[in-house]
Fold:
Amino acid sequence: MLILTIVVVVVALATLATTGFVVVTRRRLPRKPPESLPKRLPARTETPRPRPDEIPPARAGPVGTVAPPATAEEVPAGVSPVGEVGVEPDVEVGVEPDVEAERPRIRDRMARARTLLSGYLGSVRSRGKIDDSTWEELEEALILADVGVLATTRLLDGLRLKVKAGEVTEAESLIAALRSDLVDVLAGDRELRMAPEGTTVWLFVGVNGVGKTTTIGKVGLQEVSKGHRVVMAAGDTFRAAAADQLEMWAQRAGASAVRGNEGGDPGAVVFDAVQHAAARGCDLVLADTAGRLHTKTNLMEELKKVRRVAERPPGMVMETLLVIDATTGQNGLIQARQFASAVGVTGVVLTKLDGTAKGGIVVAIADDLAIPIKLVGLGEGVGDLVEFDAAEFVDALLAPQ
Ligand SMILES: Nc1nc2c(ncn2[C@@H]2O[C@H](COP(=O)(O)OP(=O)(O)OP(=O)(O)O)[C@@H](O)[C@H]2O)c(=O)[nH]1
Ligand SMILES: [Mg+2]
Structure:
């Protein structure tokens, strides 16, 4: 019996010891992952796409590969050594950034202009009939919107004829007729032309501060997105910061930039940019110019020279775009006349339409000089540049709030 008891106790103790060990072992050993599960989760590859205007400059491409200076034969006399920034876009050409998807609407950005005109037009509409006050209010509204005296007179004379002929009999149809006449005045070809062969040059001219460099940046991004290989020429040598600003835009757009020294010859920079583009298989040069000069040389004479130099083969100046600040009012018309007679402007870029209650200056320019308005700037962001749409613009001016 004693032996049996001892055996039972020994067996019981042995069982306990084994179970305890297993429990301890279970607690201490880490769990093995099942063979079917991957050891690590794959890294997340999808990142949210930034909006074009959120792209910080630092995000743009591998920068800073300074090219050797152009050879002496390539550069006309007096040219400073020229450097370039990296040409590799950080975006896949034609895919990102999707500028079109972000296209701001003229109407949304012109709220201030609508507020200005809606009072006058509301008053004209509310009377229903056409009387002396109708003509006075329309005239005042158009002058206030910066359409200018000449264009306003021409537009109202045309409307008076329609009223006289009985084609228009009440206020609502008078405003509709004004709308349609304004759209007609603003009709024009908005295309930005590429040369069939050679290196296309688009020159950007305009007085200082109107938005030339910013516009080049925005246009550069749009053209790179379309698949063009773009070179930006820092033809504004008035201050070094202007070339720095252009380089920053080039980096954002995935373009290259060619610059000279401060105070250097702008024509030489543009010439060099064309040679650079041709050598690297780039098809489009966007040339910045100064709105003012160091020397006493007349700005228009200097621009004529830049243009002549840019025309040297393989360069072909296909567009000379006059940049006008919409907030400068009738001064814009005077600028347009001067630049048009000096360098043969092919189109107008109207900037800062977002910051003005006006914008009618485009009607004055189109009426007076028959130069098409090609692009409008609607803000400082990289995506804030759209092709001018006459109907959308006129609706933004005249539509009730
Ligand atoms: N709100 C608004 N600001 C703009 C627009 N376009 C340009 N700007 C601003 O206008 C200012 C002048 O722009 P720049 O591009 O430097 O003008 P610029 O003609 O090159 O000037 P200079 O080099 O001095 O001759 C900058 O602060 C721009 O951000 C626009 O469409 N809307
Ligand atoms: Mg500039």
